[in-house]
Design goal:
mainly alpha; MetI-like fold; flat; disordered N terminus
């Protein structure tokens, strides 16, 4: 009978004296989290809206398109907790499904504009000639108000959810690129970058292995605010009929439908407006808290 020796390299490393345990680290994390109420409140509001709009409709099998002329403009009740609209559609279903659309558009815009702006900002900071061209393009895009430029692009592309995402990604791209470029320019002037250049490190290693890692924090904060701004601009565009086309529900076109029933059926305005306000407030609070959390001075 042979006995197999244990591989010492696979044995768990002994805990060093004074090293905090996992439970202690967890307690330290939550203790530190208490110092950032904006981050906590914003994350809680955003999580509630994500569960309500993205998960609950899948479990409840809601139908935002079914009409019933017998219950038009019915107030909140046990059957319809948020009432019905002017054609008898359940307002709860439309608010939650509309939240799906608005959150999907906002997240997609933040992802596309964030990724493209990150790359453009990095190369703009590291290569001056490339940066000059990209920044002039950004200046031209930023010369127009976001909603006006979005309406122009929607008129050229046509109304659809995909085109709304594409148009708003173009609108918010320069904001991300400028923030990343500014941060990357600061990092590029640090001594460790000069040392890497002097020892012959490749441009790709310096750019992506060192500079990019040091601009993630401001980039992430900017993308969070783009998320909230994209939801607001999409709602504004849908309100004036240049965003999500009917009958697809979104908070913007629901507010548009409610404008003629403000005194007769105030719930048509109150519930989608409250959902929009809570979502944007949660994202902005989360972004502000994240900025404080990632700030080195705040950590000290």
């Amino acid at each position: 009978m042979t006995v197999t020796a244990l591989d010492p390299t696979r044995a768990p490393a002994p805990m060093q004296p004074g090293e905090p345990t996992r439970s202690a680290k967890r307690r330290q994390f939550f203790t530190r989290l208490k110092n950032y109420p904006a981050l906590t409140i914003g994350a809680a509001l955003l999580l509630i809206m994500l569960i309500a709009c993205m998960i609950y409709p899948l479990l409840a099998d809601l139908d935002p398109y079914s009409t019933d002329t017998d219950v038009m403009l019915l107030g909140p009740s046990s059957t319809h907790p948020m009432g019905t609209d002017n054609v008898g559609r359940d307002l709860l279903s439309r608010v939650l499904i509309g939240g799906q659309v608005s959150l999907t558009v906002g997240f997609s815009v933040a992802l596309l504009s964030g990724a493209s702006g990150f790359v453009a900002g990095l190369y703009s900071a590291y290569y001056p000639r490339v940066g000059y061209v990209i920044m002039r393009i950004c200046d031209g895009l930023m010369a127009f108000p976001a909603i006006l430029f979005g309406i122009v692009l929607m008129g050229a592309f046509g109304q659809s959810i995909q085109n709304v995402v594409l148009a708003l990604s173009v609108v918010f791209f320069p904001y991300v690129a400028r923030v990343v470029r500014s941060s990357a320019m600061t990092v590029k002037g640090e001594r460790f970058v000069e040392v890497l250049i002097n020892v012959g490190a490749s441009n790709s290693r310096i750019l992506w292995g060192n500079i990019a890692r040091n601009v993630i924090s401001p980039w992430l904060i900017q993308v969070t605010f783009i998320f909230a701004d994209a939801i607001l601009v999409e709602a504004a565009m849908s309100f004036i009929g240049a965003g999500i086309p009917a009958p697809t529900p979104s908070w913007g076109n629901m507010l548009y439908d409610a404008r003629n029933y403000l005194y007769q059926a105030g719930w048509m305005l109150a519930f989608p407006g409250a959902a929009l306000a809570i979502t944007v407030l949660g994202i902005n609070l989360f972004g502000d808290g994240l900025r404080e959390w990632l700030d080195p001075k705040g950590r000290r």
